[in-house]
């Protein structure tokens, strides 16, 4: 089974609605989701996102 590790920036593009990258990031995640390919992020991605969204 294929598995994909998402880069922090992909998640941030969607979460922070970075307009120049948001659509592409959503397309990537939608493709993975539609094909039942598990997506993962690292533990540091979670803490980075929390820090950036909170500020």
Describe the structure.
With 55 residues, the protein is mostly helical. The protein has one domain (4-54). 65% of the residues lie in helices and 7% in strands. It has a two-stranded parallel sheet with strand order 1-2. It is flat. The chain starts with a strand and ends with a helix.
SSE arrangement:
Elements: E1 4-5, H1 8-15, H2 19-34, E2 39-40, H3 43-54
Give a short synopsis of this structure:
With 55 residues, this protein is mainly alpha-helical.
Relevant terms:
single chain, flat, mainly alpha, 2 strands
- The SSE string, one letter per element, is EHHEH
Oligomer: single chain
The figure for the number of domains is 1
Overall pLDDT level: 93
C-alpha-based Rg, rounded: 12 Å
In spatial order, strands of the major sheet run 1-2
Look at the helices and sheets and give the structural class.
Answer: mainly alpha
Distance between the termini: 37 Å
Helix content: 55-70%
Q: Can you count the helices? A: 3
The major beta sheet can be summarized as: 2 strands, parallel
General shape: flat
Strand content: 5-15%
